[in-house]
Amino acid sequence: MKKLIINDKTIMNCFAIFIISFLALTVMSCSEEDFGYTKDEIVYKQNFEKTYGKIKSNQVWDFTTYNLKKLGLVGGPNAAMGTRTQGLDEPYSIDKIVFYPNNKQMPGFDPNATTGNNSGNNSGGGNLTYKHEEIEKWLKEQPIKEGLPLTFEKPEAAFTVIPFSAPGTWELHLVDTGNGKNFDYKITDNTKLNQPVVIMPEYITGRFYFYVKYGNVKDECIALYTGAPQSVTHLSGTNPLPSVVLGCETGYGEKDYKDLGIFISVPQTDINKPNDPDPEQPKNIYIVDDRHIQYMIEDKGSTVDFDFNDIVVVVLYYEKKNIDGTDEGYEKSVTAKLKWLCGTLPFKLKIGETSIPSSSDAPAMPGNILHDNFPNELKSSYYDLLSDRGVHIKGFNPNENNIQAIIYVKDGKQITSRVINKTEFPGAGETPYMIAVDEGTAIPSEGENINPNIFVVTPANQTSEVLR
What we know:
This protein is of the alpha+beta class. The chain is built from 7 helices and 24 strands. A hairpin with a 2-residue loop joins strand 17 (about 345-350) and strand 18 (about 355). It is elongated.
């Protein structure tokens, strides 16, 4: 049996271990309340993580399709949905959707510009009044932009798409979302770099978007670069034709959205009459941001249920922009509607700069009702929120989710001014009292926890950084 020897060194080591343990316990004990969390919030977080697992530091809570695409994530409520591949059920064959000019003068370009016939690797551009080298140089000089899922309004006229400056093997796809379906067309690829493709508007059934496919990876986020000067685009006339340069990703690594450039121009003449002496006034192409964001809110009345149905409000955000950067055809509207209510505590909503209700009183809620059955005595305060037209909202930014629910104390039918809490949209890794999903996502019944699969998102490209 070994003899235990206690000396000064042993005492110092024990003391050091005690101090480290004490500090660790102190940090653990103060890591919640001392950072501003209430006891109820701590219990809520503990119960939430018992139910759904530990919250990741980069966990996002905006599960809308738009946001997940923007971040390069897959999963969430719509994990089972995706773009269909081209097949027999597509409405039109690819040769009806696109038209290759085969070295002919393309409408929409200045016939007096000098091109040098675009001689170069993979050019094949023929007598095009367009210099892809100059547009490529212009693109590389622009500040790096964040890629966004861009959706275009149904086209009014044929328009030209010219891909340039792209390494490797890639495909450029156009997805027609008409009739509530996604019809996927591969319109060009790396074998036709710098060659123009004309999109035939009469065969596009609805809004559409582009994406780049390289290997098995699909990138639907595209950066929008406007303001390319006529000296670069060689477009004619004192009033420049609607045109835009899109920047795409075609590989792994840094997302600078400059790997593949797409030059888009609206033709000035009929593609079948390129020398038409009386060209029509050029039509425009519009980019549309149309999001129906369903905010599902817990009012903190309980720390053990996670049904996210106490307050469910849908914000309908619509913005239409002209790709030429002008105000022509610009439209914007933001409205909010109450979708569902299972909470019983009085509340106000602040969406952007708009408070609902606008009066100083926050009436008590009966709970567990669909908005169609909202009691008459409450309709005076929440009338617009319950109406088909909704409440007109000012100052709302869908990318910031600047929405807040203010919950008040209820004592029978008496409403006090004491606020229980102000619930804002959670940041990455925070405990959620509010989440964002697409409109139409199932709302759980009272006491039924929300589906845990909603919270599961992973990078679409596992080998590259997405959250940063």
